[in-house]
């Protein structure tokens, strides 16, 4: 059972990601990407890492993609929708089907087939406490290094994106 | 100090709303409970009669001219005794805004407002009131006034027969 | 086999019961809100349909179901169609992890009064609450209307502003209970609720969930006197109804979360656990309605200012202080 769920979720992830990078409309692409993240989170859950699954949803689907969507809507870079009178065609229903499949499996997982107790037990299971110990005791140095790297990236982005001073830039005279 | 002011401004409304929750609502439960409308409330228009029981309206079209939404229309005629009246008189209450300008304009105090505000209905055409719907059997708010007894023409009584009139001058007489 | 069948039957009965209770409660919460709001404004509120207006939700439902389901010509069809369902579904799914009573002894076996006791229940709630914004954002964008789009943008910026402080406000709770499981968090509050132990976290979480519920004073996404109806301007009929019922289910969920995390869950003297839980949730819902009657709406830059510059530092500081105290006690 768990194997089947793994393959279905994997297929959903791959298809949704493919669609996300081929869509013209950025909002649609974001939806597919969220779909892919959601299925990925369920995969993590299935493999015995509930904490990673929750973070996948909270941070990636819940915060970063929301920020993306916010920017897309603010800048209005989505092309206008042409009015078609015939309703959605089958391809347009695909995301709903994907999402419905993912949610159905989610429900099944949560109600009946929690991998912790059932036969399809994964090889290892990381409770939040184990995860925390691993993260902040065993690999504390690596985590700090990575977080510093993120800080550098943030500072670098701030430096690159700073507003230019008009008086000191010789090339900006024609502006 | 701003913090104190802001906290006070945030917490005080809670006390106000909580206090109001236990007070008696001021709502009038309309169909069961009816409010007495004010004495000079302006609602449905009527056409009144004079103390003698005749129609007051002389079909002068002044109300129609005064009406800002043009909801009053009529056709004037003259009776055999010289009394002018409206052959038909029509007020479209689906257009009427109840401003009361027609009653201001009326020289004979024929058209008057009443406090009856329950005009609502499902068919707008039923709101077009004809003369027989408008005409009432009383004098409205001016029980004593009779236009033809002040107008100086011989309709209600021969000339000079009304209380405020003197007898007509005889132009052929040489007396002062 | 029969053992498993009975267990399955009990689980299904529990699910069905929760579903019906939540939907009915949401419908009657609308009525309660209208009545309480009316009394606070010296009115009576709905009192025509049935005795004391008790059948008003039913008549509202019939009205919504029989209205025309309007689809704007230039709307993005499938997003427009699924957005209300997304909004209601995420709200309903959240109730899966909320424990609403102590484990029940029935037919000789214990039945936990929670749909699924996840060991990451708290994170599940946070994840679904952040997914809930998609229904609103996509509905507003797909409507292809200026007001709806503005409502969506405001909703997104609002989510980004308050969600961080909401997540940080529950960190002290997790530290004190030493678990992400909501059942264990409630168990840890048997003596004294966390609202008394850690009032700053309680207040920050309270303000954040008022923002999460998108109600006055943080109802910028739908601000009816600025943006017509915000993100659901173009919705009609039962699709609007789904948004509406999702909002009220969300209200119940947030009340339950506040009860579970800070008000001691089902713990209380004399009365059975489920009754205490319901009473606490209803009290929180009353508080929400009370807030709506009392406070004006903020501007959305004010909310962002408040969220980022006041709530977030306070929540961080609170987490730090709580952690330090816990360490000190532990030694």
Can you characterise this structure?
The complex is a heterotrimer of chains A (175), B (176) and C (331). Chain A is an all-alpha fold and 175 residues long. Chain A has a domain at 2-79 and 91-126: Four Helix Bundle (Hemerythrin (Met), subunit A) (Up-down Bundle). Chain A is 70% helix and 0% strand. In chain A, helix 1 runs antiparallel to helix 2. The model of chain A is unreliable at 115-121 (pLDDT under 50). With 176 residues, chain B is α+β, with helices and mostly antiparallel strands. Helix content of chain B is 19%, strand content 14%. Chain B has helices spanning 2-21, 62-66, 101-105, 131-134; strands at 45-47, 72-78, 84-92, 111-113, 128-129. Chain B starts with a helix and ends in a 42-residue tail after the last helix. Chain C is mainly alpha-helical and 331 residues long. Chain C has one domain. Helices cover 67% and strands 2% of the residues of chain C. A two-stranded antiparallel sheet of chain C has the order 1-2. The radius of gyration of chain C is 21 Å and the shape is globular. Chain A binds chain C through residues 27-28, 31, 34, 38, 41, 50-51, 53-55, 57-58, 61-63, 66-67, 69-70, 73-74, 78, 80-81, 83-85, 87-88, 92-93, 95-96, 99, 103, 106-107, 110-112, 114, 127-128, and chain C through 11, 15, 73-79, 81-82, 89, 93, 96, 115-116, 118-120, 123-124, 126-131, 133-134, 137-138, 141, 144, 149, 152-153, 156-157, 159-160, 163, 167, 179-180.
Give descriptors for this structure.
heterotrimer; A: 175 residues; mainly alpha; Four Helix Bundle (Hemerythrin (Met), subunit A); 70% helix; 0% strand; flat; C: 331 residues; two-stranded antiparallel sheet; 12 helices; 2% strand
Give the number of DSSP strands of chain C: 2
Low-confidence stretches of chain B are none
Shape of chain C: globular
Give, in spatial order, the strands making up the sheet with the most strands of chain B: 2-3-5
**Arithmetic mean pLDDT of chain C:** 84
């Amino acid at each position: 059972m768990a194997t089947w769920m793994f393959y279905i979720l994997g297929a959903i992830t791959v298809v949704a990601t493919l669609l996300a990078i081929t869509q013209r409309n950025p909002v649609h692409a974001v939806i597919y990407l969220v779909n892919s993240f959601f299925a990925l989170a369920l995969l993590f859950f299935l493999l015995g890492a509930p904490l990673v699954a929750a973070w996948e949803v909270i941070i990636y689907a819940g915060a970063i993609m929301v920020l993306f969507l916010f920017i897309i809507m603010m800048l209005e870079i989505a092309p206008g929708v042409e009015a078609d009178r015939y309703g959605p065609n089958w391809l347009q229903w695909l995301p709903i089907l994907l999402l419905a499949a993912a949610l159905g499996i989610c429900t099944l997982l949560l109600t009946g087939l929690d991998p912790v107790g059932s036969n399809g037990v994964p090889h290892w299971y990381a409770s939040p406490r184990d995860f925390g110990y691993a993260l902040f005791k065993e690999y504390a140095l690596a985590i700090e290094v990575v977080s510093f790297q993120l800080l550098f990236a943030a500072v670098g982005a701030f430096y690159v994106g700073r507003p230019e001073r008009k008086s000191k830039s010789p090339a900006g005279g024609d502006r | 100090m701003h913090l104190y002011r802001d906290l006070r401004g945030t917490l005080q409304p809670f006390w106000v709303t909580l206090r109001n929750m236990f007070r008696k609502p001021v709502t009038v439960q309309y169909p069961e409970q009816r409010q007495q409308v004010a004495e000079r409330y302006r609602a449905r228009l009527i056409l009144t009669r004079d103390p003698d029981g005749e129609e007051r309206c002389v079909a002068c079209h002044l109300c129609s001219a005064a009406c800002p939404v043009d909801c009053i229309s009529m056709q004037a005629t003259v009776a055999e005794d010289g009394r002018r009246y409206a052959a038909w008189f029509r007020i479209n209450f689906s257009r009427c805004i109840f401003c009361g300008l027609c009653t201001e304009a009326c020289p004979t105090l024929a058209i008057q407002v009443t406090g009856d505000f329950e005009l609502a209905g499902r068919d707008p055409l039923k709101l077009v009131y004809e003369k027989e719907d408008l005409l009432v059997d009383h004098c409205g708010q001016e029980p004593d006034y009779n236009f033809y007894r002040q107008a100086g023409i011989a309709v209600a009584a021969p000339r000079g027969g009304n209380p405020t009139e003197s007898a007509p001058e005889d132009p052929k007489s040489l007396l002062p | 086999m029969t053992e498993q069948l009975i267990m399955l039957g009990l689980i299904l009965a529990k699910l069905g019961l929760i579903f019906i209770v939540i939907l009915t409660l949401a419908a009657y919460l609308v009525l309660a809100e209208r009545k309480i709001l009316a009394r606070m404004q010296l009115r009576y509120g709905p009192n025509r349909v049935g005795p004391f207006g008790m059948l008003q939700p039913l008549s509202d439902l019939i009205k919504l179901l029989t209205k025309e389901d309007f689809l704007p010509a230039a709307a993005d069809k499938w997003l427009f169609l699924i957005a209300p369902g997304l909004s209601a579904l995420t709200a309903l799914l959240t109730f899966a992890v909320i424990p609403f009573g102590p484990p029940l002894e029935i037919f000789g076996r214990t039945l936990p009064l929670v749909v699924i006791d996840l060991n990451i229940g708290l994170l599940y709630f946070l994840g679904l609450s952040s997914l809930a914004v998609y229904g609103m954002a996509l509905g507003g964008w797909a409507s292809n209307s200026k007001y709806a789009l503005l409502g969506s943008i405001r909703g997104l910026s609002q989510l980004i502003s308050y969600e961080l402080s909401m997540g940080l406000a529950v960190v002290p709770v997790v530290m004190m209970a030493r678990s992400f499981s909501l059942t264990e968090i409630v168990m840890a509050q048997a003596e004294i609720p966390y609202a008394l132990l850690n009032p700053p976290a309680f207040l920050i979480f309270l303000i954040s969930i008022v923002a999460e519920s998108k109600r006055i004073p943080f109802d910028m996404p739908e601000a009816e006197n600025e943006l017509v109806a915000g993100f659901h301007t173009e919705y009609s009929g039962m699709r609007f109804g789904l948004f509406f019922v999702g909002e009220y289910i969300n209200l119940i969920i947030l009340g339950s979360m506040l009860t579970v995390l800070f008000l001691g869950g089902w713990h209380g003297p004399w009365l059975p656990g489920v009754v205490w839980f319901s009473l606490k949730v209803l009290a929180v819902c009353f508080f929400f309605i009370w807030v709506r009657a009392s406070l004006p709406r903020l501007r959305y830059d004010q909310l962002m200012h408040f969220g980022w510059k006041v709530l977030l530092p306070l929540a961080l500081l609170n987490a730090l202080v709580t952690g330090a105290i816990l360490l000190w006690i532990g030694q």
